[in-house]
Design a protein that fits this description.
Blueprint (H helix, E strand, L loop, with lengths): L7 H10 L4 H13 L1 H6 L1 H5 L2 H6 L3 E10 L5 E12 L5 E7 L5 H17 L6 E6 L8 H15 L8 E4 L6 H15 L20 H19 L8 E5 L3 H12 L3 E7 L2 E4 L6 H10 L5 H6 L4 E4 L10 E4 L8 H9 L4 E3 L8 H9 L3 E3 L1 H4 L2 H14 L6 H25 L6 H19 L4
The structure holds glutamic acid.
Glutamic acid binds next to β3 and α16.
């Protein structure tokens, strides 16, 4: 889709100001392409330069993270926190520890987070952070020392009313524990609401661990229902085998579908009887092993090294690994194999060409900022519980999550209808999210 003529110069400015940050360019372009109809309908946004303002982060923090490994050798990593937009609430978004992290990745994630958080309808702004630190192969003590060093700088920038980080790739409850411990130690404050994704014994919320994956499965359930269908008898393929993938698989099974394959960066496993989630949890969460270990333990499962999981035929595809894992090639293969629903558990896992191919083929395509918003939404519920020093039951928390995902789904479809693009979840999500942020920014004056 072409960019609306009033937004062309905004995109040109983003390219010029953020050279070489291709993932950020991609994320901005996708939003600018789809909000054209809203720009035409609301000239007051353009007059106030809302889009240009949204594309420029409010604050960018880059810092040195020195740490010592178990042999006493010193390493230097780079830490980031992108405080992108706080019109709707404190900056909110995860921290990613992965060697691929650089400014362009953190910016794309922070930018997406503004819209995702807006879509939840909850009072959270958008931010993201992380480091090019590689947690793979590191000992527990090394992880702890790295987290402590990272927080030694980060603590001065965050706070329950300012900026509330959480996890993302490479950052789970173990890392959040070490980060929270260091924050508490430096500030002398038991400020539970400064981080989310905490362990249950020190202020965490039930269902936060499961929330992104569960939420994505709930979203698919709504997409199927909107087509008069359900998970019954459907096969699904999930990429990844981390936190998002594991709980997406668990919920798809509870909803009556069958996930026949999942993956990691080395290859994928196929289990036609349905992935055994308890075994997957043991392999990935307890032993921290590779996915090939699954096929070693399940005699009827097979492991395929070095290939993409999208070769496996399915009705529903749920990319839950990382950005740009479904290009045009993989999208074509999925369509050819009969896939009719795609929902992104990861952030921006489908390239623009892949999205176009799905939409042209009539595949229902749920973009990450809608389909995976359950994680951050449940983080906002964790903030609510922390603020009231309360702790909700699993059932109550899960019901809230399901309601939120249903509302997001409805908002996407209603907005797509309103702007003359029925069934287009990408346009619906971007326009609904954008107008909420834009209205808040107009109300707050020139910020
Ligand atoms: N990293 C997650 C996301 O991409 C969760 C962020 C949060 O809970 O703050 O939305």
């Amino acid at each position: 889709m072409p960019i609306h003529e009033r937004l062309e110069s905004v995109y040109a400015e983003v390219l010029a100001r953020n050279p070489g940050e291709t993932e950020f360019h991609q994320a901005v372009r996708e939003v600018l392409e789809s909000i054209g109809p809203a720009v035409g309908k609301h000239p007051q946004y353009a007059d106030a330069k809302i889009v240009s303002r949204i594309c420029e982060p409010e604050r960018q923090i880059i810092f040195r993270v020195p740490w010592e490994d178990d042999r006493g050798e010193i390493h230097i990593n780079r830490g980031f926190r992108m405080e992108f937009n706080s019109a709707l609430g404190p900056y909110k978004g995860g921290l990613r520890f992965h060697p691929s992290v650089y400014l362009g990745i953190v910016k794309f994630l922070g930018f997406e987070q503004i819209f995702k958080n807006s879509l939840t309808g909850l009072p959270i702004g958008g931010g993201k952070g992380g480091s090019d630190f590689d947690p793979k192969g590191k000992s527990d003590r090394e992880i702890m020392r790295f987290c402590q060093s990272f927080m030694t700088e980060l603590h001065r920038h965050i706070g329950e009313y300012t900026d509330v980080p959480a996890g993302d790739i490479g950052v789970g409850s173990r890392e959040i524990g070490y980060l929270f411990g260091q924050y508490k130690r430096i500030t002398n404050r038991y400020e539970s609401g400064v981080l989310t994704g905490k362990g249950l014994i020190y202020g965490g919320a039930r269902v936060r661990t499961e929330a992104t994956g569960y939420g994505t499965a709930f979203f698919v359930n709504e997409m199927l229902a909107a087509r008069g269908d359900s998970f019954a008898g459907k096969t699904a393929v999930v990429s990844g085998s981390g936190n998002v993938a594991i709980y997406a698989i668990e919920k798809v099974h509870q909803l009556g579908g069958r996930v026949v394959a999942c993956s990691d960066s080395s290859g994928y496993v196929v289990d036609e009887k349905g992935i055994d989630v308890e075994l997957l949890k043991e392999i990935k969460e307890v032993r921290r092993e590779r996915i090939s270990a699954y096929a070693e333990r399940v005699s009827h499962a097979r492991y395929v090294a070095g290939q993409q999981v999208w070769d496996v035929p399915c009705d529903v595809a749920m990319p839950c690994a990382t950005q740009n894992e479904i290009t045009g090639k993989e999208a074509e293969r999925l369509v050819r194999n009969g896939c009719t629903v795609v929902a992104e558990g990861a952030n921006m896992p489908t390239t623009p060409e892949g999205v176009r191919l799905f939409q042209d083929a009539g595949v229902a395509f749920g973009p990450g900022k809608a389909a995976n918003a359950g994680g951050v939404a449940t983080s906002a519920l964790e903030m609510q519980q922390n603020a009231s020093r309360d702790s909700w039951s699993f059932e109550y928390s899960e019901d809230r999550l399901e309601d939120i995902m249903r509302d997001i789904h409805t908002r996407c479809l209603e907005t797509a209808d309103e702007y003359g693009m029925p069934g287009n979840y990408v346009a619906g999500a971007n326009i609904a999210a954008y107008t909420r942020v834009a209205d808040a920014m107009l109300a707050l004056g020139l910020i």
